[in-house]
Amino acid sequence: MANLVQRVADMAFESFAQPQMKDNLKGLEIFIADIKRCKSKKSEVKRVNRELANIRTKFCTRKNLDSYQKKKYIAKLLFIYLLGYPIEFGHLEALNLITCSNFSGKSIGYMFLSVIFSPQLDAEYVPLLISALKNDISSDRKLEAILALRACANTCFPEVIDSLFPDIYSILKKTYSFN
Fold first, then answer.
1. How deeply is 170 buried, as exposed, middle or buried, from its count of CB atoms within 10 A (0-12, 13-18, 19+)?
2. Which of 69, 93, 140, 159 has CA atoms 20 to 30 A from the CA of 56?
3. Closest by alpha carbon to 149, among 179, 169, 119?
4. Domain named Clathrin/coatomer adaptor adaptin-like N-terminal: which ranges (predicted)?
């Protein structure tokens, strides 16, 4: 578990250090501060459950959330998962972030799916994930291709890798300069 947390922390640092990411997820910062202030496990559970209910309500009732709100809620779900709580929703919203043109949204979406996504539990989303990965792997934007390749390397789901192998292999054959 420590390796997983370290990997996510590294990914978060890399993602948030990118110059394209100017968004400050203030809502996430406030939520983390609230969790740190909890005096007992019971108060933490209560705060987490309240936040999960809020996020679920936002995802269910407001279909037109802006990019900032989607990123904030997906980042909160990822944080809650890293605290040890199960996350049973948000996968489709993370996939939607991956398909957006905003780099910071893609980054958070890929981070969420790299850590939480399970093809056994989320079988209906696998074709959408494969399609998004194919689009980004073949993108002319190097950072998008890197995000997609990193997600493939971190997840290693046979269903996904089998579908993407030709695309990944063609990239490996090319001579890229990532400078």
1. exposed
2. 159
3. 169
4. 45-175
* Residue whose token pair is 């971190």: 154
- Which residues lie below 8 Å from residue 2, measured CB to CB, with a gap of 6+? none
Q: Closest Cα partner for 25 from 72, 82, 60?
A: 72
Q: What is the CATH number of domain 1-177?
A: 1.25.10.10
- Residues 120-179 have pLDDT tens digits of 667 888 889 999 999 998 888 888 988 988 888 887 778 888 888 888 888 777 755 555
132: exposed, middle or buried (Cβ count in 10 Å: 0-12, 13-18, 19+): buried
User: Angle at the Cα of 70 (from 63 to 12), degrees rounded to 5?
Assistant: 160
The whole-angstrom separation of Cα 151 and Cα 58 is 26
Whole-structure pTM value: 0.79
What are residue 10's phi and psi, to 5 degrees?
Answer: -60, -45
